[in-house]
Write a structure and sequence with these properties.
With 179 residues, the chain is of the alpha/beta class. It contains 5 helices and 7 strands, in the order αββαβαβαβαββ. A hairpin with a 4-residue loop joins strand 1 and strand 2. Helix 1 crosses helix 3.
């Protein structure tokens, strides 16, 4: 462990690791190339410059912090590749959280298992993927969500989770206490 409290493992490479975080490196790139294209999601017909992506990442990071998530917490993401996935990746890195990628093909029992096993404090979902309606599946796992107001709720499972629909950025997330 380095003197700054960050772990450092370089493996067999002769090149040293960068002494920075993903969030800090992202900020440096944004500063150098704000107008360059950073993200293209053809399937969503969306394009972002680094400045635009940075704005979305900062907004997401502030939202995660506002609902009480922070450094060291595991935040699951159950989604295929899409703009919101990239935003969540950088936002969790900026707040020091760990993004837990959940296979988009998982069924309900697999989702429940991985949320508990990985110790996820929150869950970010896409509304659907192929034949899977993630929103409905989450309601099936925790029926209390269907009528829960934004904020903490008890759901009788072993992990705390947040239900936020990335396709609906204005929707208020549901912060759920499973367990």
């Amino acid at each position: 462990m380095g003197t700054d409290g960050l772990s450092y493992v370089s493996g067999t490479s002769t090149k040293p690791l960068l002494g920075t975080t993903i969030g800090a490196l992202f900020d440096q790139i944004v500063e150098r190339f704000p107008d360059n294209e950073a993200l293209v999601a053809r399937q969503q017909s969306q394009r972002f410059s680094y400045a635009q992506l940075h704005q979305a990442v900062e907004r997401c990071a502030r939202g995660l912090l506002a609902i009480g998530l922070g450094k060291g917490e595991r935040i699951g993401i159950w989604s295929p590749n899409r703009v919101e996935w990239t935003i969540a990746q950088f936002a969790t890195a900026k707040i020091g959280a760990i993004l837990v990628n959940i296979n988009p093909a998982y069924r309900l029992h697999e989702l429940e298992y991985v949320l508990v096993q990985a110790g996820c404090s929150a869950l970010i979902i896409a509304p659907a993927f192929k034949t899977s309606n993630y929103t409905q599946m989450l309601y099936d796992l925790a029926p209390e969500l269907h009528h829960a107001a934004p904020g903490p709720a008890r759901c009788g499972k072993a992990a705390r989770s947040t239900h936020a629909d990335p396709a609906q950025p204005r929707a208020k997330p549901r912060h759920v206490q499973l367990g």
